[in-house]
Amino acid sequence: MSGLRSVLVVGGAGYIGSHMVKALLEAGYEATVFDNLSAGHRDAILGGHFVQGDLADLGTLEALFAAGSFDAVMNFAGSIQVGESVRKPGLYYRNNVANTLNLLEAMVRHDVRHLVFSSTAAIFGEPAYLPIDEAHPAQPLNPYGRGKLMVEQMLADFDRAHGLKSACLRYFNAAGADPAGRIGERHEPETHLIPIALEVALGKRRELSVYGDDYDTPDGTCIRDYIHVDDLCQAHLRALESLRNTGRSLAVNLGNGQGFSVRQVVDAVREVTGHAVPLRIEPRRPGDPARLIADSRAARQQLGWVPRYPDLGDIVGHAWQFASIQARSRAENRSKTGSSA
Ligand code: UDP
């Protein structure tokens, strides 16, 4: 068991954050969730202590650190849509950069010296080569990626000046859900491929828009590296242990190292669900590179991390289980409300 026992999980009510809280509790850590619930869900927090608040609110943040005694912080809070970041850069620099700076300064004031930070493959921009390793040039194409890169650069400065050690984990495409079906992906609005394809399978949407089938890939659709959310969280646990054991900051890319096209994902959804998924071919989505695939050897070698669910069928299967449970409970709630009306 690690010596880092008490972890503050900022954004712990969101998709990845809630799976992280589960993983921390299962590994014997204490978890405190700090979330403003703007995108997260209170019922996604499976345990630990919950404080509702916003990183922009310096008074609440100060009280949080004064009341708790945290050994480490994980930051999952932030805005996550590339297209929105182009339309509303101020929102992204405020939520993802300025608010993270508030967090870093509070950590320094309260002598909390370990941070695991949710970074992204979007810091790299258009791939110069594949798979993308840690030496790949970082030339983000949008405010979302630029903001995440700015935080990585701030973290290097905070390490030099204050000894704040950080692990920057560059996520490729987080997907899947808790294999026990308790938590999963619930974005509003949903923009991600797998949950949208599952909504089509459930009959909640008529068809799936495929953003371009004329890319230079074998079937013409974009290729992405889908990584199971539980595997992602296990990598965070390893990163936390590495900070403690080595006392050194690190930055690694996190993916499966395997790419799947949009059509391959849709085929997996059809196979897992047994339902039709009608497609509508649409124009390309601006800013989508044809292929994004991680070279995750550094994470494997430095952290001893091995993904448990590399199989696309498992990733889609767990997401489907969660989506079906959610759909059933919504239908039950509707019929209860209907009968009591
Ligand atoms: N995509 C699609 N239709 C959708 C959503 C996504 O064709 O309704 C494609 C998108 O263009 C990208 C891939 O699926 O090539 C994964 O997109 P997602 O938004 O899930 O993640 P991103 O790669 O943008 O982080």
Please characterize this protein's 3D structure.
The chain has 341 residues and is an alpha/beta fold. It folds into 2 domains: 6-176 and 227-256 and 296-303, NAD(P)-binding Rossmann-like Domain (Rossmann fold, 3-Layer(aba) Sandwich), CATH 3.40.50.720; 193-222 and 259-292 and 310-340, UDP-galactose 4-epimerase, domain 1, CATH 3.90.25. 42% of the residues lie in helices and 16% in strands. It has 10 helices and 13 strands. The protein has helices spanning 15-26, 58-67, 82-87, 89-109, 143-162, 193-201, 229-246, 262-273, 297-303, 312-340, and strands at 6-10, 30-35, 49-52, 72-75, 114-120, 165-171, 173-175, 208-211, 223-224, 226-228, 250-254, 260-261, 279-282. A 7-stranded parallel sheet has the order 3-2-1-4-5-6-11, sandwiched between helices. A two-stranded parallel sheet has the order 7-10. Strands 8-13 form a two-stranded parallel ribbon. Helix 1 links the parallel strand 1 and strand 2. The mean pLDDT is 95.
